[in-house]
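Field: sequence (string)
Field: structure_tokens (string)

Example rows 1 and 2, in order.
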Amino acid sequence: MGRHGADAGEARQAREARQARQVPAGTVLAGGNMNAVVRQGDTVLRVAGPWTPTVHRYLRYLERAGVGGIPRPLGVEAGRERLSFVDADVPVYPLPDHVFTDEALAQGARLLRRLHDASIGFGLDGAVWQAPAKVPSEVICHNDFSPHNLAYDDSGQVVGAIDFDFASPGPRLWDLAHYATRAVPLTDRTPPNAPPMADAERRVRLLLDAYGSDAGHDDVLRVAVIRLHDLAEMSRHKAVELGKPELAADADGYEREAAYLATLRA
């Protein structure tokens, strides 16, 4: 490619990036602190990236494997991906009471197991991920599997999951530990409507049993501490990249929680 062709390609990429940053017409959905989400009818638009083709291929793979309640990829338009809208309630913070029931915790764990098992065999050649792969790469991790990315029906039952754009290969426990921090929850500042930390070990075991994991409570704490530090680093990076200083404040909270959980290790 000559310099003229390269310049034209760079100009096109810059134009698409500007278009992607402009919020299109539609209903802006709550949440999405790292990616503005706009609903148009029964579809949603989100800013795309180099990882989007891989994530779309992965979502189609999950659908073929029989996983329901997840977005269907519909294409990329002017730097934005279009996905089907998952027609259910996706809670925002502060989280509602129903996400903290034992039943909801177990349902989420069983859904996570289905997602992990369904990812086995996904082709990795040529894959591009937004989040770094982790070892051992047992499955494709969601990497943000938590109540604010789960879909609930009117009775509070878990019926699906959204926001797969941070998915990447990793160990099952990476997702399990993150889910535990948000859904058990494991935190030094328990929400007033959530079970207290005195009940956390029982709920971690409930989560692990529902998933079918042979990991223990201390395994979850160990990985949760590492996972929170990883999340803090990523949040600080995104705060600069996206011009959102509030993400740096979130990072401080993740590191505080990591320090607290480290004191609970056996």
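Row 2 begins here:
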Amino acid sequence: MPVYGSDLSARSNATNTHSANTQTIADFQQFVTEFRENESFIYRDRLRANCLRKEWTLEVEMGHLIGWREDLASRARSEPGEVLPLVRPSPPSAPLRALRS
């Protein structure tokens, strides 16, 4: 005899995880495209330059991320195995959006 509550709980947890991951991606993309230092969009410009060289990496200073959104930096620091694969630039998604900006 199936226990219906456990199925709903598992689906609810999966939905919550998906929502959190979607929000993390959106927050990090906003950071990369909008963070400025001395009127320069340093991460957007670095990502654009890296993409033109077909280098799909972007190094981010944790201090900048903390200053932007401390909760995002905290999640990246406490759950790197979960967060880094979500925000890793990979063709054609994030780099192409940055090139269009």
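free_text_note (row 2): The CA atoms of residues 21 and 86 lie 7 Å apart.
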